[in-house]
Specification:
CATH architecture of the largest domain: Roll
Strand content: 15-25%
Structural class: alpha+beta
Number of strands: 11
Order of helices and strands: EHEEEHHEEEHHHEEHEEHHH
Length: 314
């Protein structure tokens, strides 16, 4: 298993640590994050290293996803204060502070990179951990470590030892009886629980920014729909989601429309019976929906069958 020690803005850290608990945070990158983040895979640890004068590991979380958003306002729409500031303008001021050497007018909706971190934990100052002993002062963004050996292992063990009670099962799965890491090889034992923001951004990427039914591309009217609602035991997982235009989403949640397990759009006769309308939707009856290319991102046929049987007003 790999881990990543990331240089972390103290203001970002202190703001978020004062707003815990959080199920996710956006560790944003100024100027859009030009390169795809390939150091970690989902479920590997991401450590928050405070820069000088602190030079300490002050918390960590589990890497979930990396995306480059064309507008900083989209990051705010998805994560809100989990971006590490009270308002969008405050986020923009911080991004401007760290942006590359080019003029950025405050208020301009410029690109931002998003490293989405699940289940973050922020340590009180008395429990901050020593940074890796081989840390070089010229490291700009961060450094990857093997968490099975050396300093990577030490940092990971000390972080796991500080997990709060709700997260202790994670530590127990990774640690042996003597408090050290078990010999788990390269298996990823931590499945990151996606938050609503990561779910939203992930679906937008999986569906190429288009409604699965109508192909509408306007972000303000697109919503992350759960096939099985979160309140009914559904999870923030892409296979339990669809990117839908707002009106389609509302009809889907109320059971007036559904998606069949073979990915066809279906409209209930109850829509016309109860509201004497719906012609725009009936025109799409039986049409195939847009499906993500990645198999793991495609809607779960089991979840769709559940919606057909339990929600759809057929």
């Amino acid at each position: 298993m790999r881990g990543y020690v990331a240089n972390t803005d103290y203001d970002w850290f202190s703001f978020l640590s004062a707003h815990t608990p959080l199920d996710e945070v956006n560790f944003w990158q100024p100027s859009g994050g030009k390169k795809t983040f390939r150091v970690l895979g989902p479920g590997e640890p991401f450590f928050f290293r405070l820069k000088a004068p602190h030079n300490k590991i002050a918390g960590f979380g589990w890497f979930a996803r990396h995306e480059r958003l064309v507008r900083s306002s989209l990051a705010w729409d998805a994560f809100g204060i989990a971006n590490g500031a009270e308002t969008l303008e405050a986020v923009r001021r911080r991004i401007k502070k760290y942006a590359e050497k080019r003029p950025i007018q405050l208020g301009t909706d410029y690109p931002v990179g998003c490293l989405m971190i699940s289940q973050p934990v922020f340590f009180p100052e008395s429990k901050w951990i020593d940074q890796p002993r081989d840390w070089a002062p010229n490291i700009v963004t961060g450094k990857g470590y093997d968490t099975g050996v050396g300093e990577g292992r030490r940092v990971f063990e000390e972080c796991l030892a500080q997990l709060p009670a709700p997260e202790q099962p994670v530590a127990e799965a990774l640690m042996s009886g003597d408090g050290s890491l078990s010999r788990y090889g390269q298996a990823l034992l931590v499945q990151p629980r996606l938050g609503q923001g990561t779910f939203r951004i992930g679906l937008n990427s999986a569906y190429d920014g288009a409604c699965a039914v109508t192909n509408e591309h306007s972000w303000p009217v697109l919503e992350a729909a759960h096939i099985r609602p979160y309140s009914a035991g559904g999870e923030h997982r892409l296979c339990n989601g669809l990117l839908l235009r707002a009106d389609i989403h509302k009809l889907f949640d109320k059971g007036y429309v559904t998606i069949t397990p073979d990915y066809l759009f279906k409209v209930s006769g109850r829509l016309e019976e109860e509201w004497n309308n719906g012609r725009a939707y009936y025109k799409r009856q039986g049409a195939p929906i847009r499906v993500p290319e990645q198999r793991e991102d495609q809607p779960s046929k089991t979840m769709l069958e559940w919606h057909n049987q339990e929600v759809f007003l057929g």
